[in-house]
Amino acid sequence: MGNDFDTAELRARHLYDGLEEDPCLGQECPVPGPAGSLEAMQSYPAGYDGSAPVAVVCHPHPLYGGSMANKVVHMLSDTFNALGAATVRFNFRGVGASQGRFDQGRGETEDVLAVVRWVRERHPAAPLWLAGFSFGAYVALRAQPQVQAERVLLVAPPVNLFDFEALPPCGAPCLVIQGGRDDIVPPEAVSNWVFRHQVERPAYRWLGDADHFFHGRLNRLREVVQAEWAHGARPAG
Question: Which of 78, 127, 186, 210 counts the most CB atoms within 10 A of its CB?
């Protein structure tokens, strides 16, 4: 599995270059983490009163350019805001201004737990949503048994690169979105994992013409998330 990871992610590395930069709209907020301060950005829809959901969004692989500025992560945050939910994006340890060093998903799971604790201290009445793209999907699902989010979104989960089969079922409504032209994560491997290894089968949406990074398909990805999660959040505004 390690060799597959090295090969696939090295092929992916250049695809992170030149992605849209985060305009940093919202409120910057350092979050205390287990390896030091974590750089985070929180964003609220108009009229947010603390009772609508808060979505924590996890970014792609730190060693290959992944950060909270990633265009998929940024789009998910915007989409959740449009659905009436607040969002918190953050950089894993060692990324951007976040302290610490990459820890193969173990320490990054602890980072998620720290961010979730921070969110719940500030919004105790708000339901929690948890989302992740690529490596972030793995870490989100790894953290879910302790987080117990009300909803989980996994975009392009790298089931061929990490041991997803060792993870327990999500335990909450879960939406998996996979591109049919993904050359980093084999789409059929994701399909097999969804339908064979989840006791509580998640909703599965296949975007046949999308690659791993959803180049040119971000609007379609947004539409799928909005359609699937339109209920359960107070409309923005």
Answer: 210
